[in-house]
Structure formats: structure tokens, C-alpha cells
Amino acid sequence: MQDLFTLTGRRVCVTGASSGIGRALADGLARAGASVVGVARRQAVLDEWRDEHRVAGVSVETLSADLSDPVNTGEVAKEVSKRFGAPDILINAAGVNPRRSADDVTPEEWQATLDLNLSTPFFLARAFVPAMRTKGWGRVLNIASLQSARAFPNGIAYGASKGGIAQVTRAMAEAWSADGIMCNAIAPGFFPTALTGPVFRDAEAASKLARQTCIGRNGILDDLIGPALFFASRASDYITGQILYVDGGFTAK
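RESULT FIELD:
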């Protein structure tokens, strides 16, 4: 049964790997035996992450790249594939949240949010699909959000992008799963990351959110590794087009 969850021999690309959810998932899949390429903008942070894993004997490489322009995804895909070969698994974790009200969000902020959170995940996945199709096996794991299904204050651009990522995940599944490429998404609840920093700096707000879960606490990043490992492994061979809410029961109440 353990073979269902092993990633030994698999090659993984994780965007947003320098911090937060992306880094946690890159760490978790590397520890599960995968060769992981972490992609983000900050080379110094990526170097630190790579060196930590190499000391532990884990197979990781890095790529410093700006994913904010979807036009760059083809070149990014080529550079990623130079590390360990074309990836079997793509995790789209890079993201941005401008936290602007509907009255204040600018066209530039709106477009930048949709580009990084919605357009880049699709075009980067599409760049890797031919190699996955040739192998008859692949995984695309997107990061959705509570805002994929409901609205939050000052979240109109972010919510639009995450509503879109839920639908694009289903559309990816429809397009590619017959070729053995399973496409799913994780929708995290409230986790301490750079994007949620303003929430967690307010102790009362963070406590209120914890009380809204069924479990009674907010998430810790390790809570996301098990679901990601499931979706990245053979255990999910017959699951595609799904959005799994990893939220402590926030959406159940």
C-alpha cells in the first residue's frame, strides 16, 4: 500500500517555492522521494532552501523566474526541464493578493492578479502536458482558496482569480485526463503565510477564524502536505477535476 504514495523517481516543479504554501509542498514532496525544482523570484532564498535539502541528501534544484507574465511560461518550462528532465508533476502555488476593495482596485492590480493566479498556472501546465502525455502519466495540482466559493472583504481581484482557478482545474481535467494527466486543486483555509500576514497579525481576527472551523484552530502548513502527496501520487489515479477544501471544516459550518 505504501507504494501508492511514493514519489521515488518522480520529477516535480513547484512554483512559489521560496515561501509559504509553495515551500511547504516542495519540502513535503522532496521528503517523499521526488526530485523537486523550486521556482520563485528570490534567488537568494531559493539557494538557502536548496542548500538545506542538499545537506539532508534530498534531490532539489531551483530556478529564479518571474511568473507574473504568462508569456514567459514557455521559457520557464524549458529551463525547469533542464534540471531533472520534464516534470511528471506540476504544483502551481505562486500567487498574489492585492487586498483592495472593489471601489479601489486598479486595472493594473486586477490584471496582475489574474495573470499570476490564473493565467500562468494554465499556460505553464500546458507547456508541460506534451511530455506528460508521452509518458501517459502526469499530475497538475493547483492552489484554489476559500474565495473560490465565497466572497471576503477586499478580495474581489483575488476571489475572481481563485474562482477561475477552480473552473480551470475542471477544464484541465476535461482536456487532459484521458491522456493520464490528473488535474486537481487544494483550497486551503487560513494558514500563516506572507499572503495572510495581515490576518494573523490581528490576534482577535485570527482567533475568530479559528472558531469558525469545526476543528477549532487555523491551519499549519504541514496540514497541506498529506493532501498534496495524495494528489501527486498513484493514490489519485482515478480522481480528477476536484477541489479539496483543506480548511479544518471552515466551509462545513
